[in-house]
Amino acid sequence: MKIIDAHIHYAGWDGFNETAAESGQVNTVEGVADNFRKNGVVMAVAMGAGRNGGDPAVCRPMTPNLAGNATPEHYGQPDYIAYCAGVDSGAITPENTKRSLEEFERYLQTPQCVGLKFYPGYHHLYLSDPRHYPFFELAAACDVPVVIHTGDTAGTRGHVKYAHPLTVDEVAVDFPKTRFVLAHYGNPWIVDATEVAAKNENVSIDLSGLAAGTIDAAVFLKQFRGYLEHMRVWMDYLGDWSRFLYGSDYPLVNIGEYIKVIRAIVPEEHHEAVFCNNALRVFPKLKPLLKAEEEK
Predict the structure, then answer these.
(1) How many Cβ atoms are within 10 Å of 118's Cβ, its own excluded?
(2) What is the DSSP string of 87-147?
(3) How far apart are CA 282 and CA 151, in angstroms?
(4) What is the mean pLDDT of residues 205-212?
């Protein structure tokens, strides 16, 4: 079965290198390629993360950089790595919005930039802050989704009230032409995330980040049986398996073991949709990239 990992990090930061090592992985271009090969991952969507860099004149897209800094002129990452351009919400001002949108559009015009990524919780702003609205309109115009960090944040500096999945409902209603993805299923607010997706057809859910570190799938499934059964109840309540996307949150978890966990949660008859086909629908720019990979 082909797997598209709809949520990874592909950056050479010390923290990611250390986390990868702790989860039994190697955070290098070669290490990721070997990891993907072993686990049947044919393509991944990396989340651009970081900070704007202190330039008040423009909010610049954050991009993957494991194989060097990516720009529209020189992407440099492997062809099987697409990405969502990260938005540093705190760097958007009324004065720089026009130039910032032009810069993001320049990236979105390249084949590898397949979406936008927002970090409420880490950036202490609600998703419904008006400064974000032009970016939602840009995403709709470019036919790419907006991926949103929802749920718990790593470390103690995040403000989780901004990352609650219910905050996505407002923008999903107000921007019906924009596709939104609730990253991490809003964990631990699974019920709330399900309701947002249930009432808004333009909202999908990615299943990344539900475990972290070095895990043994069999042990994890047993230890967290109650939590996982609770999640399955609400996945069944949503009743639309086309709305779920597999993602790992690499390098924060061991990919091979995490795939086993998600396979155990998702009914077998929906594996092809959740592990591959749904990502191609939500991220339509992946289709030509995947075709080119398969033709190599």
Answers:
(1) 27
(2) --GGG--TTTHHHHHHHHHHHHTSTTEEEEEE-BTTBSS-TT-GGGHHHHHHHHHTT--EE
(3) 21
(4) 95
pLDDT digits (tens, 9 = 90+) for 151-191: 999 878 889 999 999 999 999 999 999 999 999 999 999 99
Neighbours of 125 (CB within 10 A): 18
* CA-based nearest residue to 41, from 228, 187, 254: 254
Phi, psi of 46 (to 5 degrees): -90, 145
Q: What is the pLDDT of residue 257?
A: 97
Q: What is the mean pLDDT of residues 75-102?
A: 96
Token couple for 33: 């390629």
What does each C-alpha distance from 32 to 12, 168, 192, 218 come to in angstroms? 12, 32, 34, 24
* Spatial distance between the Cα atoms of 1 and 43, rounded to a whole number of angstroms: 12
Per the document, the length of the chain is 296
Q: How far is CA 134 from the centre of its chain?
A: 20
- Residue range 69-80, pLDDT digits in tens: 889 999 999 999
pTM of the predicted model, to two decimals? 0.96
Burial of 192 (0-12, 13-18, 19+ CB in 10 A): buried
